[in-house]
């Protein structure tokens, strides 16, 4: 196999530690931007100001009263993202997890899929991460194409009314969002806090 060739296969058990590190590194790359986005929304700023004002009556240090709520809020956002995306889910109805592998044997990306909650929801990407050393080299698009093929096959085998793939993306991951839009995906909601999105969901009928 040529060194530059890129293939996708199921993850081997001995690759689990390496894949976990890749997922954690991917979360770290976006968690600070997500925290900054979340904590600079007007409701969050008001809550932080109120918490700081209350702490000023308890703590002797004005600086500590100002910084402690910010520190705790940032930590909560980071822990939430790491718990959600920094680990490997158990194998679901669509198999996997899968890894993208270069011809040289380097594991450079990871993908996990799961069925949607309701009939007709299609399949969901639950993990999609590319090693920082292999980004902008087509790995993400290759994993996405593989995910679409798996979603089509699963929908046909299950008698689903349509083949569909949903990809959640952190609001600060602009590069991933741009790749999805370039592949025909459309933003259709997501989830967040206090009315402000932290994660957008992109979907595509296949």
From TrEMBL:
Localisation: Membrane
Cross-referenced Pfam families: Acetyltransf_1
InterPro entries the record matches: Acyl_CoA_acyltransferase, GNAT_dom, NAT_camello-type
Superkingdom of origin organism: Eukaryota
Transmembrane region(s): 55-77
GO cellular component terms attached to this protein's record: membrane
Keyword field: Acyltransferase, Membrane, Transferase, Transmembrane, Transmembrane helix
Main location: membrane
MF-aspect GO terms: N-acetyltransferase activity
Protein's UniProt keywords contain Acyltransferase: yes
Domain N-acetyltransferase: 6-206
Function noted in UniProt: Probable acetyltransferase.
Homology family: Belongs to the camello family.
Name of the featured protein: Probable N-acetyltransferase 14
């Amino acid at each position: 196999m040529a060194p530059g060739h890129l293939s996708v296969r199921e993850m081997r058990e001995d690759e689990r530690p390496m894949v976990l590190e890749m997922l954690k590194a991917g979360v770290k790359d976006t968690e600070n931007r997500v925290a900054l986005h979340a904590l600079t929304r007007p409701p969050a700023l008001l809550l932080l100001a109120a918490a700081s004002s209350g702490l000023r009556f308890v703590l002797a240090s004005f600086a500590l009263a100002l910084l402690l709520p910010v520190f705790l809020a940032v930590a909560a956002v980071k822990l939430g993202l790491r718990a959600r995306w920094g680990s490997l889910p158990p194998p679901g109805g669509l198999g996997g997890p899968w890894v993208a592998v270069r011809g040289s044997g380097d594991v450079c990306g990871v993908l996990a899929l799961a069925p949607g909650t309701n009939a007709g929801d299609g399949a969901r990407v639950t993990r999609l991460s590319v090693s920082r050393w292999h980004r902008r080299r087509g790995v993400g698009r290759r994993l996405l194409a593989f995910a679409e093929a798996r979603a089509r096959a699963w929908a046909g085998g299950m008698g689903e009314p349509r083949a569909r793939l949903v990809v959640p993306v952190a609001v600060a991951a602009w590069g991933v969002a741009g790749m999805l839009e370039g592949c025909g995906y459309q933003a259709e909601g997501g989830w967040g806090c206090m009315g402000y999105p932290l994660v957008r969901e992109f979907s595509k009928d296949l």
